[in-house]
Design a protein that fits this description.
Blueprint: H1 2-17, E1 33-37, E2 40-44, E3 48-53, E4 58-63, H2 71-85, E5 94-100, E6 104-110, E7 114-115, H3 124-132, H4 143-153, H5 155-168, E8 178-181, E9 184-187
Antiparallel strand pairs: 1-2, 2-3, 3-4, 4-6, 5-6, 7-8, 8-9
Helix pairs in contact: 2-5, 3-4, 4-5
């Protein structure tokens, strides 16, 4: 993974070198994506920024300054813990790359092959199972996402995933936070959105 850190570290250096104020990665508009080089994109959410190189199978994320939570570090912990629940394959891999230039704490994520565009018509059985999760963190945002995960992973895996979502407050599972990897729907953003401290969670 050292090569990946150096690859994206060089991209960060180039972005900053081409920015007169050297703060292009400090002040990024929420949910604004823009191309900063040929095939390289900055994609920002509410708490984090992703750098995407079209020629790379991995992307990197880092937390935006000023956040009370370290969402990337939290996500890395959840990915490790998911193995205990038997659902790690349902999450896109997350790896802590370490620091670049002693400032940018980068985390690598396997890049999904396709984004989620809905699942079409639900069967009665699918709708019944999805409704079971409608009041839990797993299914509260999108019934379509719940059914998509159910189709690819089955009801037993959904029960295990639901336990993980409850225990770790993974509460932001909408269509933009899932995608396809190896022809199966996986969760690409599973940090959740927290308004208070989560320090009581176990390592």
């Amino acid at each position: 993974m050292l090569d990946l850190l150096q690859h994206y570290g060089a991209i960060i250096d180039e972005i900053l070198d081409n920015d007169d104020d050297h703060n292009a990665l400090e002040f990024i508009d929420y949910e604004e994506n823009y191309q900063c080089a040929n095939g390289v994109w900055l994609c920002s959410g509410a708490t984090r920024c992703a750098i995407v190189d079209d020629d790379c199978d991995w992307i990197v994320k880092f937390d935006l300054d000023g956040n009370h939570e370290d969402y990337c570090e939290r996500e890395a912990r959840i990915y490790r813990k998911a193995k205990d629940y038997g659902v790690q394959d349902m999450l896109v891999p997350c790896i802590d790359l370490g620091f670049w230039r002693e400032h940018w704490h980068l985390y690598a994520y396997k890049r999904v092959e396709d984004r989620f565009c809905g699942v079409g018509v639900f069967s009665d059985e699918e709708s019944k199972i999805a409704n079971k999760y409608s009041s839990s963190p797993l299914g509260s945002k999108s019934k379509s996402v719940t059914v998509g995960l159910l189709r690819d992973w089955g009801s037993k895996m959904m029960e295990r995933l639901n336990e993980l979502c409850i225990d770790w407050r993974i509460n932001d599972l909408h269509g933009g936070n899932v995608g396809y990897l190896d022809n199966k729907l996986v969760i690409i953003d599973y940090a959740g959105y927290l308004e208070d401290d989560y320090s009581s969670e176990e390592e």
